[in-house]
């Protein structure tokens, strides 16, 4: 028996120290269920938001959070309510609120040094920045990628990837020649040939950020883009799959073939060079829209055929939630993407790449004051190391499978839940409701019951819990969701 126990112990340790609940190990005082003391939002929260609203636009705020009292998978508000949080700062909290290892990093001398002397990294990189990257962000690099450019946000990560694509293609066209006088003169007038007329292709319902270039590739909601000047860049359709997938195999295959044909047609007919495409493994803000691995493999084949770079936007899908560290790993591509952008759960931002030519040959071309932030890279390092230590990607996969099964049963009981999707993609799960009004009421009722949950697209509910979200949390989520559905009638 002793030998058997030792063997089981070694196996468990090898799988990431998951003999006990990881959440319990991190957060022994985490609530077992939501704690509700007031109406939602409570009086203190309403008062705080009203005061804040005088100096800061907070019309999208749900409540005034108390991060000092938030713990693990539960976010607290100033009225003392604690909600099970499956929205997690719009998919950005990896290890739970007030994770002790994150706090340890935050209080370290290395962090204090990074914050007090924040370097302009391109000009004055810190002596330890390479090691910080190699132990964290680069250790987590997608297969086939060995280089990184760090940035300030997801939007910035995408825009710097766009710049890399444009500079790359222009350099290929120019060969070994230096910039011509005409290029140098015309670029100062925002004209070709100095200013590029090349384009980035994106997909209908995609979301890639709110800066000027990234916003031109965002296609999710009009409200994001109204009144903002935009580049005349192409778009292609993204598949609209029918669910359950096993009941619509033929229809979904035809839909993906249609989208691929339209994609190639856009490439062939576009009047200027398409430097790159950008695509999400799962379209997140646009409604949690999925496509098959074969669809993405075909896209990759077409980009190689037409000498177009492929940028995979993993800002929301990356860092473990899909049951793979990078969601595009589900595709099993024969040739890796050219760039992969990241942010959110890593708390840092940037893009990975492999081709040396994606780094401009001259300094100051890919540049800003900060070029990222060593303090955020330190957090990313801790996130990566804790994910590895506790095998939290596997936790997301197994918990997601358990949760999907429970939601599948729930959708069988309530016709207002349909198009359940995210099977085999960890906790990256979503479903549709009959209308946007019905969806919004469901979110409100869930919050009143102690579940902080978010929507996406026009009618979708999305789940974005932490990586320490476990089966016991999934049970609470499903119980509250069912009660919210009952209240809606």
From TrEMBL:
Listed transmembrane segments: none
Entry cofactors: pyridoxal 5'-phosphate
Enzyme Commission code(s) on record: 2.6.1.19
Keywords associated with the record: Aminotransferase, Pyridoxal phosphate, Transferase
Highest rank taxon of the organism: Eukaryota
GO cellular component: mitochondrion
Class in the EC hierarchy, top level: transferase
Known catalytic reactions: 4-aminobutanoate + 2-oxoglutarate = succinate semialdehyde + L-glutamate
Gene Ontology terms describing biological process: gamma-aminobutyric acid catabolic process
GO molecular function: 4-aminobutyrate:2-oxoglutarate transaminase activity; pyridoxal phosphate binding
Residues forming coiled coils: none
CDD domains: OAT_like
Database matches in NCBIfam families: GABAtrns_euk (TIGR00699)
Quaternary organization: Homodimer and homotetramer.
Family: Belongs to the class-III pyridoxal-phosphate-dependent aminotransferase family.
Annotated protein name in UniProt: 4-aminobutyrate aminotransferase
UniProt source species: Kuraishia capsulata CBS 1993
